[in-house]
Every structure is written in structure tokens, then in C-alpha cells.
Amino acid sequence: MSMMDRWVRVELELQFSKPFVHIVFGARQVGKTTLINDIIKDCALYYNLADPEERTRLLADPGAFRRECEALSERKKPCVVFVDEAQRVPDVFDAVQVLYDGNKSRWRFILCGSSSRKLRKAGTNLLPGRCMLHRMFPLVLAERPTAGHSKTVIEPLVELPGTDRLTSQFPPADIEERLAYGELPGIVLLDEADRGIILRSFTTAHLEEEVRKEALVEDWGAFVVFLRLAAAESGSMINYAAISQQVGLSQPTVKSYYQLLEDMFMGFRLPAFKRSPRKNLLSTPRFFFSDVGICQAAQGITPGRDVVLSNPGKYFEQWVIAELWKRLQYIGKGKLHYFCTKDGAEIDAVLETTDRIIPIEVKWTERPSRKDARHLLRFIEETPNATDGYIVCRCPRPQKIADNITAIPWQNL
User: Fold this and answer.
1) Whole-model pTM?
2) 3, CA 20 to 30 Å: which among 50, 129, 139, 184?
3) Cβ(309)–Cβ(223) under 8 Å?
4) Furthest-apart CA atoms within the chain: distance in Å
């Protein structure tokens, strides 16, 4: 199968040409290694530190990495050295620093990893003036076309520039398929009959391996219970006290587990919107898993369409929020919040740009109505710079619900 194009490719190709150390963050299975290998076709040295034999070799002889880099013949173009899962051998960062400081043009180091905690800790000395950080995420909508839908020309809520440059896309999918199995590249290329089982196996094996390596979890059984509760509550406000009581762990431990999920790029916090004249706002952040397929598997259930259809609105909201969040992370500007008051007024997402505030509701309906827009209308009335609101739903074409409220199909996000 030919290489499927990714939106971030052009950005990485441009940045990799610059004389810095490059660190690429991202969860396991988002396609980091595949894309980087396709970009750097003339790689001089490749280290896969997920391989126990390679990792043990460098741990036993910390100087081997530096000596092998120095043995490369000097040439006009920098020698590309790609280290996958670099956080597994922290001494690599020290060696890279010494080599880079000695000769900035001889090597081009690309370090890839799936744990931001260890990468941040090990790579601290690389950052000032030496390092460029890049992020990769599960697929965005532009990388995987919609099935059986003709797009209506409408400005996207968060535009990814350059999507017209994509030379190939992943197989098309309807919304139920996306909600059932998520957007990990390796999963969407499998036969549908295999996706749920592979997702569950991957989540269990990957999490146990990574969490144990983080050495932050003393009781694996308690962590599994925490994980299932956190996944079941994905999209809800974080309630440390309730989870602490159910799992039998201290609140500081529960907080550290949530942070661990973020550090492994498995989830993110959605902060509350606070720039409202209302005095009774809730301020606790919500936590979302960054992929709905992983979210289901982390609950201890096998992902599938039947799971989604038992509560489609919940997973639809999580997918939309994650899609908007991924785009904002890629373009590096704009903020995403949610809005909720103590008396029950709630808006699923509030998108904040340099000059606009856009409230967004997510509804699992094909027939949006003015009733669906009541909180949006009041929010716009009360909030400066909020002039228009949107309902993301399953309607076939954009619809005007009120003068300043538009319902849009999810395909037109």
C-alpha cells in the first residue's frame, strides 16, 4: 500500500531542513515513525529504542551512540540521525547535546518519543537555542475523507491551511465508523472486523508497558480501575474526590495519573471559559481522551458500532471536541474551552481566536432546531466578540437556525 499523506508532512519537511535538533512528540501509533522515515529517505543512522536489544546495548555502553555518530563520514549535507523512542535511553540526549554543540552542521538529529514527561526531563538541556519541538496526533478530518457526502462550501470553524496539498488520503468513513474505532492510522487501515480486538489489545499492552516504564504506578490493578473510570467519564468535569473514593487512592495520586495520561498524549484537559459576566460559572476542567477508539478500549470494552449506538451523543461530542483540539494544536493558535454555569446552562465548546469567540454545540440529530440553540443565543447576547454560534450535527446541509446561529454537518467542520 502506498504511503498515505499527512497534513503535518509539509511542516516537518520544512522544519527538518533547519539546523536544529528536532524532537517529535506523539502518542504511540499516530504514525510518527512511518512519516519520518518517509521524509528522511537518506537517513545515515537509525536507532529503534523500542527494540530491547538495541536499547540494552546503548544502556550498557552510553558512549556507543556518540562514537557511532562520530564515525560517519563528513559530507556537504548533514548526516541524518533518527532515534525512535528516544526517551528510553536518556544518555542519548546528553550525547546529542555534545555533538550538536561541537558541530551544528555535521549532523541533523531527529528524536522521536511517546512520553513527554521523560522527553522533557531528559531533553531540558537541549531546549535553549538548540531544539525544535513538533507534535503529531491521530488523523484529522482532512486526512480521512467522509463517506457519501458532497461538501457544501462553508468556512471551517478551524481551518488547517494547505489541506489541498494532500496527495492521498486514508479510506473514507462515515461518522459511526469514526466513533466506533477512532482515528489512529494503523487501526483505520485494518479490516473493520479486526479493529475492535486490536484496539483493545493495543491499549492494554501499550498502557501496561508504558506505565510500568514510567515507574510512577505502584499498584497496577488500582491504575487499571482508575483508567476505566477516567475513560468512562471522558468529556466530563474531572472529579478527583469521587474517583479517589471509588479507586481507593489518594487525590494527589489520582491527579498524578491524569497527568500521566496527558504526558503519554492519551488525553487532554479542556478548561472552562471564564470571560463571561455571569457570576455562577463552573471552573473545573474537563478531561477528554484524544481518540474515541482508545477511550472505549480503555474502559475495558471491545470498541464497535454497537457500543457507540448505545450512547452516540456522548461519543459524537468527544470526537468533535478532539477534532477541533487537534487542529488548534497543529496551527499553534486559538484556544478551546467549554462553558457551564451552576444553574445548568452549558455549551459544549467555546472557540477563542484573536478577534472572535465562537460558541459551539454538538448534537446527535439530523433535524436541529431553535431549541438546540437556546444556550448559544444567550451566550452571544452576553459575551463581547461573540457574534455567531454553531451547532455541529448530522444535518445533510448547513441550515440557518437563527440570525446568528448556523447548524453545520460534521463533515463541514
Assistant:
1) 0.93
2) 50
3) no
4) 69
